[in-house]
Amino acid sequence: MAKIETVRDGEAGVPSTDFLKRLSGWSLITAEILYRMPDHPGLLQSFIWQEYDVAPHYPALRRFLDFWRESLDGPLHSVRVAHDRLVRPAEIRLLGSELRLH
After folding, report:
1. Tens digit of pLDDT for each residue in 51-89?
2. b/e string for 51-67 if b means 16 or more Cβ within 10 A?
3. DSSP string, 24-78
4. Domain boundaries in the chain?
């Protein structure tokens, strides 16, 4: 009888699902969500959310915000997004020389 082995994500030469998402255009998104406190609507609370998503439509973020509106009491105030399609540290290069002006 053959032995069946369970392989975990990213183990034994199997690429992780996050890596496969990156290859298909997904990248890490960070959203700062400001929402009003249910008992004190004059106060804003901050919530940081991170997930892999696809620019420019952000389907994962939209699903999360829809869930928030349907299931949570704190009404949304604003959402600020940082995505590597917006800011790419890989585009910054070191130069071979430096010039200084006094």
Report:
1. 988 888 899 999 999 999 999 999 999 999 987 765 454
2. eebbeeebebbeebbee
3. TT-EEEEEEEEEE-SS-TT-EEEEEEEEEE-TTT-HHHHHHHHHHHHH-SS-EEE
4. 17-86
